[in-house]
Design a protein that fits this description.
OB fold (Dihydrolipoamide Acetyltransferase, E2P); mainly beta; five-stranded antiparallel sheet; 273 residues
């Protein structure tokens, strides 16, 4: 009998409070209210196995929203000192330990999780879903997609679940905006890797993005009384901090604004005309 999975088991005996499924050697209770009408000994029933509030293995014909090896977007029922409990379609809420949260969840919030069996042989959930997200998305380079940021890496960037199910990454060099874990974003597919994972950018294609960056620079000039706090010689880090764009994008936008005579440069200082 496989905890946390659906399986088909045989009815081996009946009792007042339900039926037992399995074999002579191993049996599990299916409570009376869960028994399909007309069920008799010898019938086969598809059930999901989990543990009840008394930590006993029990069967249900209800459909859980997530199983071992799959992922799902679940709603937080409540939080506590040990972790959170999630609605997952069964009577007993699903436990999400603090150590398995990639960011702190709140009552009524949502998070993407998968199931695992802990050391005590209980079903628990984790938000560390990288290895369980699907890699067979229908998307191709250039498509605009929606996804939820579920984890981050200082080396690689932000991990995203596109449509809450497909594996994607916003590479570190693309993270110019202030983004938070749990945030839903809209991005452009820049690459579909050989393994099916997606690379995303939050920036539009260069012509459109250049217009947006130029507008951002003009806004910054208003904020700083007509003198930009960075120049073409400023470090990429300083430009990113001040304007949330790469140095290359900054230079393209400055070139556009110079051509349109919106700005001029005096001794390296960028000023509004």
């Amino acid at each position: 009998m496989r905890l946390g999975e659906k399986q088909t088991l045989t009815v081996v005996r009946e009792v007042d409070f339900g039926v037992y499924l399995g074999s002579e050697e191993e049996q599990v209770l299916l409570p009376k209210k869960q028994i399909p009408a007309g069920t008799k000994i010898g019938d086969s029933i598809e059930v999901f196995l989990y543990k009840d509030s008394m930590d006993r293995l029990i069967a249900t014909t209800n459909e859980p929203l997530v199983m071992v090896g799959g992922t799902a977007l679940l709603t937080v029922a409540q939080t506590g000192s040990l972790g959170a409990f999630l609605h997952w379609g069964l009577e007993k809420d699903l436990f999400l330990p603090h150590k398995e949260q990639t960011y702190k969840v709140k009552n009524g919030g949502q998070c993407i999780v998968t199931l695992y069996i802990d050391k005590s042989q209980r079903i628990s959930s984790t938000m560390k879903v990288y290895h369980d997200l699907r890699t067979d998305s229908p998307y191709k380079k250039g498509d605009i997609v929606q996804g939820r940021i579920y984890d981050k890496s200082d080396n690689f960037g932000l991990f995203v679940a596109v449509d809450d199910q497909y594996s994607a990454l916003i590479p570190k060099h693309e993270t110019f905006k202030d983004l938070r874990l749990g945030q839903v974003i809209e991005g452009r597919v820049t690459n579909v890797k050989e393994d099916g994972k997606l690379d995303l950018s939050l920036r539009a294609k260069i012509p459109q993005q250049m217009n947006e960056d130029a507008a951002a620079i003009l806004e910054a000039l208003k904020e700083y009384n007509g003198i930009l706090p960075v120049t073409e010689k400023s470090s990429p880090e300083k430009i990113k901090e001040e304007l949330s764009m790469s140095k290359a994008a900054f230079k393209r936008a400055i070139g556009k604004l110079l051509k349109e005579e919106e700005i001029h440069i005096v001794e390296g200082i960028i000023k509004k005309l």
